[in-house]
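Worked example 2:
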Amino acid sequence: QVRLVESGGGLVQAGGSLRLSCAASRSIFSINVMGWYRQAPGKQRELVASIASGGRTNYADSVKGRFTISRDSAKNTVYLQMNSLVPEDTGDYYCNAHQSSLLSGVSDYWGQGTRVTVSS
């Protein structure tokens, strides 16, 4: 198992930046994919960005060119740098750890979320 704790959310004006952090309780070296999801009020949770163990990244179209996901395995932490924020980026942001193996099957772990509010 792995416990995830997000931080870095807050209130920011449109055009501003925030950096979210996701600290894991153990090494993330072996975790297949780390991701950031967000859930806007009244909407379903959606994938924002993910990074695989090999370093490959994936972004939602709405954040490409503005957000950057990275991982620091030495610190067991994943980051989401968010620039040029717009009000549509408002929501609760959740960190996810996705692990799959033939031995253990598939496991998904979630943090408690951190709120991002972008004012116009």
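The mean pLDDT is 95. The first strand starts at residue 4 and ends at 7.
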